[in-house]
Write a structure and sequence with these properties.
Blueprint (H helix, E strand, L loop, with lengths): L10 H35 L3 H35 L3
């Protein structure tokens, strides 16, 4: 049987991992908004409404995935900060 890690033992590494994951989620959200939104606008302008709708739905799903990743990362960061000795 393994022993659980002591509080504060993996604090800085856990914080760095959570922050990196949060930034990744933010990049997904921003990228989907910019590239998906602009692609949908361009497709609508040239008359491809079906393609624009598909791109808009896909970018909306990617935004939701990015938000979920950020929420998970925030929970990890909060847990890492609570385990940190004061």
């Amino acid at each position: 049987m393994t022993t659980p890690p002591k509080p504060g033992e993996q604090g800085p590494a856990a914080q760095k991992s959570a922050r990196s994951q949060m930034i990744m989620g933010a990049m997904l959200v921003m990228g989907a908004c910019v590239f998906g939104g602009l692609t949908a606008v361009v497709l609508t302008a040239i008359g491809q409404k079906t393609g624009a709708g598909i791109i808009a739905i896909l970018s909306g799903l990617i935004v939701l995935v990015g938000i979920v990743i950020q929420v998970i990362a925030m929970r990890k960061l909060k847990a890492a900060l609570q385990d940190q000795p004061k």
